[in-house]
Amino acid sequence: MSKAEILVSGATGRTGGLAISNLLKMGRPVRAYVRRDADEAAALREQGVEIALGDFTDIDAIRSAMDGIRSAYFLHPFLPGIVQASAFFAQAAKEAGVGAIVNMSQISARRDAKSHAARDHWMSERVFDWSGVPTTHLRPTFFADWLTYPHFAKEIWAGKQILFPFGEGRHAPISTDDQGRVIAKLLAEPEGHGGKIYRLHGPREMDHHDIAAAMSEVLGARISYAPMSIEAFRERMEQTYKFNPFLVQHLCEVAQDYQNGIFAGTNSVVEELTGEAPLSIPAFIAQNRSAFV
Q1: In the prediction, which pLDDT does 193 show?
Q2: Helices then strands (H, E): number in the chain?
Q3: pLDDT band for position 133 (cuts 50, 70, 90)
Q4: CA nearest neighbour of 207 among 227, 193, 189
Q5: How many CA atoms lie within 13 A of 242 on its CB side?
Q6: What residues contact 46, with CB distance under 8 A and at least 6 apart?
């Protein structure tokens, strides 16, 4: 008989995978909701994780994955369709008697967002709220991991420059490691968190000149920040990175949001929820040195 009481979607991604690692350390049995029974699913099985197969377009598969589950993590891939997926996930959870959902949203989620993805995340939050299943919404600022994405990290190291369209805006970068700890804590102990929105920030608000200086210190090479226009960045995403149009539209709009202060601020939420302070940028870069050198 299944012992899993926690369901994690996005289990082969960063936040879902790290949530699972933390839950296993807590001794909590976990079921992963994955699209394919491939190598990544096999690796999860080897760790003792149950596997449920399906995607967010199949409400029956989601409902089956919810059997016996007490709390569930919702993470939609960065593609259109999150509003319907949220409705399916929430309805399946309600039918199965799930007591809590942790929903990965974003800090730019709001009704009047010009990013289609950010607006859809806001609408997704409302769907979960209407469902009546107690849901905690996580709104992280820009991930520290943005710096280590292969196409960006290689360019930063090769040119010794950070080329982003963020002007002189500021944020407190938050690592996926810290988000994984938060997600695991909320899934393991959801009482009192339903209906709340948590903005997730790192420990120090920085502009990209500050980030470049921190990277220079850790990596032992002078790295600078060279702000670029949003239009120039759009061209790079379309022609060099070959990003899909949905992602391009989102990144261009949130770049303007970033310049307008939407991503700014810091708080103590990570430490309050987990008992451990979030990673600083110097500590994060040191931990991920291999992405650059």
Answers
A1: 98
A2: 12, 11
A3: very high
A4: 227
A5: 0
A6: none
Backbone phi, psi, residue 178, to 5°: -70, -40
- The per-residue pLDDT for range 82-92, each reduced to its tens digit, is 999 999 999 99
Q: What is the DSSP string of 211-276?
A: HHHHHHHHHTS--EE----HHHHHHIIIIIS---HHHHHHHHHHHHHHHTTTT----SHHHHHHSS
For residues 250 and 116, give the distance between their C-alpha atoms in angstroms, rounded to a whole number: 6
The model's pTM? 0.96
Domain boundaries, the chain: 6-142+175-201+263-278
Just give the CATH number of 6-142+175-201+263-278.
Answer: 3.40.50.720
Query: How far is the C-alpha of 131 from the C-alpha of 114, rounded, in Å?
Result: 26
pLDDT in tens, 189-207: 999 999 999 999 999 999 9
DSSP string, 32-46: EEES--SHHHHHHHH
